[in-house]
Amino acid sequence: MTAAAATAAATAAGALDGIALWDGERDRGPARISWSDDRIEAVEPAADRYPGLAVIPGLIDTHVHLDTNVVTGAGPGDAWPLVTPPEEQAMHVLGHTLRFAAAGVTTLRDLCASPVQIAVGRALDEGAAAGPRLLSFPPVGMTAGHGDLFTPPRFRHRPPVADSPDECRALVRRWAREGAHGIKIYTSGGILSMGDQVRWRNQTRAEIAATVDEAHALGLPVAAHSHTAEGIDIALAEGADSIEHATGMTEDQLGPLVDRQVPIAPTLLINDLLAAGAAGVRPEARAKAAAAVAGRGRMLRAAGQAGVRFVLGTDANGRFVGHGGQLDELRQMRDAFGWTAERTLAAATSDAAAAIGRGGTLGRVAPGFAPDLVIVRGRPWLDLDELTTDNIVAVICRGRLLSGRIPAPAGKD
After folding, report:
1. Are 68 and 75 in contact (CB under 8 A)?
2. pLDDT of residue 278
3. Whose CA is closest to 223, among 187, 196, 255?
4. Strand, helix or coil for residue 175
5. Is the pLDDT of residue 9 over 70?
6. C-alpha to C-alpha distance for 91 and 95, rounded to whole angstroms
7. Average pLDDT over residues 191-219
8. Angle CA(312)–CA(77)–CA(146) in degrees, nearest 5?
9. Contact, 332 vs 312, CB < 8 A?
10. Is the pTM of this model over 0.85?
11. Burial of 361 (0-12, 13-18, 19+ CB in 10 A)
12. Whole-angstrom Cα distance, residue 78 to residue 68?
């Protein structure tokens, strides 16, 4: 059987017969994986017919931003989303999703989404194009807050903000009507925003409480951006469902974070790149990033060893953290937290799926789950250094081949 025939057969018949499997939790040995449409039907032991290859679940990045030009990297700081028609933006969003998918990421959660990302994600779900899953969490933030200050001050047509509890509730409802999967809030200032400081308060407690209450009333989870200890405390007190960045974490917060198992997307790589002054980083942002990561290593190791629930979340936008940067982020997580390769890979698959409320359908290779599969060379659950873009042979999402080619099994012609 030729490689092309094997690819067509595996996609049409919905089966991979005899390939080593790490199912999101453990090594299952060689297995036959069969699926129909977007559901795995069976996973059964089989003879090894793909020596040197293995299957892992598609990776899940719980924190990305697809509001940049997929070719040039121009983004909010360049006013690109403000001057580019939404129809054109949609093509760039789709381009991002396909490039990330080629690097093994089959589910993306955009944490500053607009109606454009919501529309592209819906079209992908409907099968208008073959692509990964895109979940959209649009923001509810204040005037002169972290989200608002990505837009240069001279622009008068700006993304929406909310400046009272009632406005917060109204904006949550507008996003729910639009089709959002969740809501993003801010409990501190940020790094790449222009003119603010990390320590700045973003919204009042009454505004944050109203946002979280309204989102939860509509079945929408809430992700809280925070770079300060105070921001983490506010996110925990107000019932946020995940915490993003958490660079200001303190030893006193380890206990509550472990007890409540609130997922944290640590976004390690981008903060280090910004602090080092990567190309295109403004001096102001470099200084804020350097302050945020100063002395971070000891706390990260303590948190990782204590059992804080870190999951893959990168801030990737194709610019600072590029397509495939998730693989480097995983190695940085492994080193920062003192984790094994298997523990780290779970944080990007089964636990990441649970963290975004999809633990019953995504992140594992098992009957009833979605057939989001990455065929790789090596055994990345034993050696994470083997998980590189060059070692990704093929990516299957929703049961359809998105990238690469499925090799012919050994012993077949």
Report:
1. yes
2. 87
3. 187
4. helix
5. no
6. 6
7. 96
8. 65
9. no
10. yes
11. middle
12. 9
Under 8 Å CB-to-CB from 57, ≥6 apart: which residues?
A: 23, 24, 349, 350, 362, 363, 364, 365, 369, 372, 373, 374
Q: What is the mean pLDDT of residues 216-230?
A: 98
User: Are 26 and 333 a contacting pair, CB within 8 Å?
Assistant: no
Inter-axis angle of helices 325-337 and 268-275, nearest 10: 90
Q: Tell me what percent of the residues of the chain surpass a pLDDT of 90.
A: 91
The overall average pLDDT reported for the chain is 95
How far apart (Å, rounded) are the C-alpha atoms in residues 312 and 242?
A: 12
Q: What is the mean pLDDT of residues 257-261?
A: 98
301 to each of 198, 336, 355, how far by Cα in Å? 23, 6, 21
Pairing of the two strands 183-186 and 400-404: unpaired
Task: From 268, 321, 326, 267, select the one nearest 101 (Cα to Cα).
Answer: 326
* Residue 72 CA: distances (Å) to CA of 67, 121, 244: 12, 22, 26
What whole-number distance in Å separates Cα of residue 42 and Cα of residue 356? 25
Helical segments of 72-129, H only: 80-83, 86-102, 115-126
Q: Does residue 198 contact residue 191 with C-beta atoms inside 8 Å? A: yes
